[in-house]
Automatic annotation (TrEMBL):
Protein name, as recorded: aldehyde dehydrogenase (NAD(+))
Keywords (A to Z) from UniProt: NAD, Oxidoreductase
Keyword Cytoplasm: no
Species the sequence originates in: Streptomonospora arabica
UniProt-listed SUPFAM superfamilies: ALDH-like
Taxonomic classification: Bacteria, Bacillati, Actinomycetota, Actinomycetes, Streptosporangiales
Record-annotated active site: 265
Pfam families referenced in this protein's UniProt entry, alphabetically: Aldedh (PF00171)
InterPro entries in alphabetical order: Ald_DH/histidinol_DH (IPR016161), Ald_DH_C (IPR016163), Ald_DH_CS_GLU (IPR029510), Ald_DH_N (IPR016162), Aldehyde_DH_dom (IPR015590), ALDH7A1-like (IPR044638)
Sequence similarity: Belongs to the aldehyde dehydrogenase family.
Sequence ranges assigned to domain Aldehyde dehydrogenase in this UniProt record: 35-493
Length: 513
């Protein structure tokens, strides 16, 4: 592995990018603070002061007042101007934000830039949406009556995000919530506070530029406690949380207990089926990016390959060969040739190791990868060769999501068997089939086919566009964010009946008085 950049260099690069995004001053704590680290070297960049309970409360109060005093009554197209300005600033600062994403999440340059592009795209989408928050008008059963639905802002939206898409997922929620008339309190991952401060800085600049109140958005930093305060705060009308299934199982019931709304985007355990008729070159590209891209740290990462037994040996060999080539391109995400950056940290590496051991104990055969590349100058950085493991059956370890680059290979004989394996996991985020057989493709997309929120044909499991609704079923939590009509989750619906006649007929023909 080529030499890694020094932590000092990354710190200065981060500082410069932050300053350009309007964050001149970091609230650094002299000890006892929370480390902002980079997985590139495993080194500490800054020590930041976490938000106290009082800070979280005051962020919610501020956002709540901005909501009720100004924002909910600001016309939606006017609210769209704020998001349009944010989109412009994101374009201007694309490389600054991409640098920060690489530094904090370890993404390679093109993926970091892609993540920022995803933010720009959702801003464009949300600006259009600001003139399209349509309600329906229905035919009333009564003469001289109008029946319709109107949509109204909800209130404060609490946004809790994960390290792996530190900025895109925030933007899906925030761009849409802001045009819907909500205000936002964001708790980013503890592992990615710097990207959050930069986004907040740009949004504050956008607000100043268009004359919108800056209080529409607040950031709180910290770990579990800060998140819990948002979860339990009755003033948070919608809690949108991205993270593990375990986190969702805690958050969901707590928000439900106060009858709040929840939007959950939890773990995936995504599979691609490769049928004998597939275009194998295309399938190989889709599988390599889906399984090894982002070092296996997307919710949409492909974790299982379900390949027909007639083509299993040949296709798996090609995957292993492709992984061999990737092996020469693991390392510093800022280096042009790198395709696989670091794991986020020691814990991720430990889970990967444990999963590989459990898989081996369950009859799995490691075909490639799994070894750590130790960089002598950065003993706390975790670079690994993406792994491929052939499994005799879909054992428990395969049914769990391990947030690391492990691809389990399973084989099938009939398409029904493939579907059964595909759906035979607790999670339901994304799935795909590579086939040239139209019947298989349609069957996969049918009601009895893939049971995920995202189902693709001849495209891998990851890399969704923002225009569609993003999210999954079963243990993935059921939430939908980003495009299509996901905006409805951020608004409340009122059904209105207006009587413009001189009579008062009752519905269902009821008579009274
Ligand atoms: C995530 O991993 O939480 O579809 C989000 C994708 C990206 C978003 C992933 N557009 O892979």
């Amino acid at each position: 592995m080529a030499a890694l950049p020094a932590t000092d260099h990354l710190r200065e690069r981060a500082r410069a990018a932050l300053a350009r995004c309007g964050v001149e001053h970091l609230d650094e704590s002299a000890g006892g603070g929370h480390d902002a680290r980079t997985p590139i070297t495993g080194g500490t960049l800054f020590q930041l002061a976490p938000s106290s309970a009082a800070d979280v409360d005051s962020a919610v109060s501020t956002a709540r007042s901005a909501f009720s005093d100004v924002w909910r009554d600001t016309p939606a197209p006017e609210r769209g101007r704020l998001v349009r300005r944010l989109g412009e600033l994101l374009r201007e600062h694309k490389s600054d934000l991409a640098d920060l994403v690489s530094i904090e999440a370890g993404k390679i340059g093109s993926e970091a830039a892609g993540e920022v592009q995803e933010m720009i795209d959702i801003c464009d989408f949300a600006v259009g949406l600001s003139r399209q928050l349509y309600g329906r008008t229905m035919a009333s059963e009564r003469p001289g009556h109008r029946l319709m639905e109107t949509w109204h802002p909800l209130g404060v939206v609490g946004v809790v995000t994960a390290f792996n898409f530190p900025v895109a997922v925030w933007s899906w929620n925030t761009a849409v919530a802001l045009v819907c008339g909500d205000t936002v309190v964001w708790k980013p991952s503890e592992l990615a506070p710097l990207t959050a401060l930069a986004c907040h800085g740009l949004l504050m600049r956008a607000a100043a530029d268009v004359g919108a109140p800056q209080e529409v958005h607040r950031v709180v930093l910290g770990g579990r406690e800060a998140g819990e305060r948002l979860v339990d705060d009755e003033r948070v009308a919608l809690l949108s949380a991205t993270g593990s299934v375990r986190m969702g199982r805690e958050v969901g019931p707590r928000v439900a207990a106060r009858l709040g709304r929840c939007l959950l985007e939890l773990g995936g355990n995504n599979a691609a089926i490769v049928a004998p008729s597939a275009d194998m070159d295309l399938a190989l590209q889709g599988v390599a990016f889906g399984a090894a891209g982002t070092a296996g740290q997307r919710c949409t990462t492909q974790r299982r390959l379900i390949v027909h037994e007639d083509v299993a040996d040949e296709f798996t060999e090609r995957v292993v060969e492709a992984y061999g080539k990737l092996g020469e391109r693991i390392g510093d995400p800022f280096a042009e040739e790198t395709l696989v950056g670091p794991l986020i940290g020691e814990k991720a590496h430990r889970s990967m190791d444990e999963a590989l051991r459990t898989a081996a104990d369950s009859g799995g055969r490691l075909l490639t990868g799994g070894t750590r590349r130790l960089a002598s100058e950065a003993p706390d950085a975790y670079y690994v060769d993406p792994a491929v493991v052939r499994m005799p059956r879909q054992e428990d370890v395969v049914r769990r999501e391990t947030f690391a680059p492990i691809l389990y290979v399973l084989t099938y004989r009939t398409f029904e068997e493939a579907l059964e394996l595909h759906n035979g996991v607790p999670q339901g985020l994304s799935g795909s089939v590579f086939t040239r057989d139209q019947r298989e493709a349609e069957r996969f997309l049918s009601s009895a086919g893939c049971d995920c929120g995202i189902a693709n044909v001849n495209i891998g499991t990851s890399g969704a566009e923002i225009g569609g609704a993003f999210g999954g079923e079963k243990a993935t939590g059921g939430g939908r964010e980003s495009g299509s009509d996901s905006w409805r989750a951020y608004m409340r619906r009122a059904t209105n009946t207006v009587n413009y006649s001189a009579e008062l007929p009752l519905a269902q023909g009821v008579s009274f008085l």
